[in-house]
Amino acid sequence: MSTTVTFDMTYDAPLATVTAMLADESFREQVCAAQHATSQTVSITGIPGTVDIAYTQETAGVPSFAKKFVGSTVSIKQHETWSTPLAATLDIDAGVPIAVVKGSIALDDRGAQTVETVTLQVTVKVPLVGGKIETLVTDMIRKALTKEQAVGKAYLAA
After folding, report:
1. How far, in Å, CA of 109 to CA of 19, rounded?
2. Which end of the chain is less crowded, N or C, counting CB atoms within 10 A of the terminal residue's CB?
């Protein structure tokens, strides 16, 4: 069983500006802070290039059926491989050994606007509660991307 998540983030900025934002360690650290990371490490070689983000979050609010799989904190590792300024593969280690999260990022230049589309495949291989955990992980991803978009809009407005 797996679930596909597609999320569009529209920014009122040209492609070059959004690409520069995504390649800025300060922006990525601000996103981690907005997601209530208790610690984070960001490493960027560029776009094209790689982006590696590792952060820890507390799992307050996680339903009890999922707590036994994640514990009181979760360590998340995100690896982006940008082959061009427009496209990347995305692998997320969600800190839950039973969940596999892989996908892509695509930037679409629309003149004065840029749309960043994140598409992820979330797979959880656990009998009985796998579907519930997939729903939980996809909801967490949507919330994280919503926060990232808000941070991005503030970053670009500054």
Report:
1. 10
2. C
Q: How confident is the model at residue 36, as a pLDDT? A: 92
The contacts of residue 26 (CB under 8 Å, 6+ apart) are none
Global confidence as pTM: 0.89
Are 134 and 2 a contacting pair, CB within 8 Å?
yes
Read off the tokens for 28: 């990525």
Pair 150, 142: CB distance under 8 Å: no
pLDDT band at 59 (very low <50, low <70, confident <90, very high): confident
In contact, 67 and 59? CB cutoff 8 Å: yes
CATH of residue 37's domain is: 3.30.530.20
Report the domain count for the chain: 1
26 exposure class (CB count in 10 Å sphere: 0-12, 13-18, 19+): exposed
- Beta strands (DSSP E) in 12-133 are 39-44, 49-58, 73-84, 87-93, 99-110, 113-124
Mind listing the pLDDT tens digit for each residue in 65-114?
A: 666 666 678 888 999 999 999 999 999 987 766 788 999 999 999 989 99
CA nearest to 117, candidates 13, 30, 45, 10:
10
